[in-house]
Amino acid sequence: MQIQLITDSSADLPIELKEKLKIKTIPLYVHFGKKQYASDELDTFTYFKKIREATDFPISSAPGPHVYYELFKEVPKDQAIIFMGISAGISSAYNNAVMAMNLLLEEQPERKIEVINTKTASPGLILLLDEAGKRIEDGYNFDELVKHLYDRVEHTATFFILKTVENLVRGGRLDKVKGAIAKTLNIKLLLYADKNGRVEVMEKIRGDKKSIRRFIAQIGEYVSSAEDKVITLTHCQAIDRANHIIEEINKKYSFKQTILSEIGPVISTHAGEGGIVISFFKDKRD
Asked: Dihedral (C-alpha) 119, 238, 37, 42: value to the nearest 10 degrees?
């Protein structure tokens, strides 16, 4: 039985991986006031241009269950479906996808379909989808792959380094006083996705170079050897910064494969310009 992989636009998939694995993608939304855009309608440059011009900070949202249902239903009945989208800890998207799955199974109980709470986004989804594709090539059947992916979710580490706290302040995730102090003192935030997939502050570090060194050093706290591992990295309009970090990571750890992609509008709402996010499989599960 063939397996159709489906995700949402928070995955920030590189086009090569999307085409290779024939991944279907459901767009999430960003809202500027009363104006709604599907995330695939805006490139990152246009998105930030709108932010600079807007009086209200944009918010992101998920489509309703019917959008997921319609896409699931389009998949031929003789193909299994695995959906992996943005963490349930930061979006209603997962619950909407589950409702769509249950509706489809009521109508077509013979279907094989699984909606997985990935507890991550952006490079974490790239990592999990890449892993799924490799295991499909290895001949995993649907049940074997679902079991393996649930295990991989618990091994997924996702870390963020933000160049600016402006988006967190404007989005209401960091109060203005703390934001002003952080900007005045050149404080950089290191964040991570916790065991429930929520984004939390790990450390506050003064200075960009020092924060990058710490960002890279923390990888070694989770992996003893990287030669057989993949690391994924997404950046928010910061290709030179991203390439520098990749170069420094591979000097220290020698990952087997590195996958690089650009952050789209949904994750940019939180990461801000210059933001970098990495994911890899750690040695021990949560």
From this structure: -130
